[in-house]
Amino acid sequence: MSETERLQIPHDAHEQPLVITILAIGVCVGWLANYLGMIRKSFQDRSYGMPLIALSCNIAFEVVFVLYPPDIPLWPSSFALWLPLDVVVVYATMRFGPNEWGHAPLVQRNLPWIFGVSLAGWMTAHLALIAQFGPTHAAAWAALVCQLLLSAANLCQLMVRGSSRGTSPFIWFTRFMGTAIVLPHEILRYKNKDPTVVWNNPLGWWSGAAFYVLDISYGILLWKILRSERTVAVKSGEGKARLGSSKAE
Question: Mind telling me which InterPro entries this protein's record contains (predicted)?
């Protein structure tokens, strides 16, 4: 059956098996946990976890698609739940972001302006997608762009920092699972002949593969960095212990 023939089959997107609903809830919960983890870690480390360009794209997506919701069960509710927590993530980023930019004073002094301009740019991009494809298909493609940008930017940020500041295995795992669950969710929707599925094409397949490569690479690199930090901490503790012992003698 061709894609055109499949889409011509009468189908109500709101009629879906329970397992699809459960997977959608899993995506929602995964990202809620991720936002909470980022907020906690930001205040703990006095840093931030989500790169500015990805954060602006992400919150622009949520704002736009709360106002222009896609006709897909549960997703509008998920966006509405994510948005308030994402606002707190933005607050933490603006508060602690300057701590990460001491090497670039121009960026350090202008973080709110940089974020604001980027936010406006991404909002207009999402609105343009809606004008081109309609809210439902636009939300799918915009989410794909946001996720790939987030995965790539997070990996770059981790490599540049060379530190676990602002991140943790919990943050990585909830982000990874919150998106990885989308794959079986979309496969089941496609098999259920849902006409709103738009990723069953080469661009969608490539994007899915890119996500897995980028985010798994992030997890491996984070594990190596954490192992290195623990080794340094142990050696530092041993050095202090020897120094204290020699002073006592």
Answer: PaxB-like
